[in-house]
Write a structure and sequence with these properties.
205 residues; mainly alpha; Rossmann fold; two-stranded parallel ribbon
Length: 205
């Protein structure tokens, strides 16, 4: 985000960064609700964001697409795995635990991300809302992957960082769920690191 703001000729700002990701959530949810196309939700994000930086909004979609391509390149260049991710997945594989990914993100982008950060060999299936036609927190977004992986929802532990979409959604679908809150408290049902996962699953066995 810092690199993108620099490209726009705008100084780094925590407020602008927060606004960008707030607008991302709002407009991506409109895409998931089929109110906007995938490309249009990107353009709409820029239309709403650029005035906040003091810049005018281009009238041509091609110019908006060019600007978003610049952001996207910076975004992809910054992809990296959290340091606890690979060790946790390796530990789960060692105890024979199947692992899948459920995401509301674009399928090609999510698979590319997982490959680039080096986690693809440690994962099983990737279930995107684009692939399953169900977006979290809908029940089917969780139960369909369980059926595909031949696992019972009641015996599946879902881990997510969005409490409403991930944790409440998974529990409403009959899965067990924990909230990954890296900066939060250690209250029951919450973990701060993926390093805690293997111990939770061994205890559950």
């Amino acid at each position: 985000m810092d690199a993108f703001l620099h490209h726009l000729g705008t100084e780094r700002s925590d407020r602008l960064t927060r606004w960008w990701f707030d607008l991302e959530e709002v407009n991506y949810n409109r895409f998931l609700a089929e109110e906007l196309s995938f490309q249009e939700q990107r353009r709409e994000r820029l239309r709403q964001f650029l005035p906040l930086t003091g810049l005018s909004v281009p009238h041509e979609n091609t110019r908006l697409d060019e600007l978003f391509s610049t952001y996207l390149q910076n975004y992809e260049d910054a992809w990296m795995a959290f340091p606890d991710a690979a060790p946790a997945l390796q530990s789960l594989r060692a105890i024979g635990m199947p692992v899948g990914v459920v995401t509301n993100g674009n399928h090609d982008q999510q698979t590319s991300k997982i490959d680039k950060i080096g986690l693809e060999p440690l994962l099983g299936r990737i279930f995107s809302s684009e692939l399953t036609n169900h977006a979290k927190p809908a029940r089917e977004a969780f139960t369909q992957p369980c059926r595909s992986m031949n696992v019972s929802p009641a015996e599946t532990l879902y881990v997510g960082d969005n409490y409403r979409v991930d944790v409440e959604g998974a529990r409403n679908a009959g899965l067990q769920a924990v909230h990954l809150n890296r900066k939060g408290t250690t209250r029951e049902g919450t973990i701060q690191s993926l390093a805690e996962l293997p111990f939770l699953l061994i205890e559950a066995k």
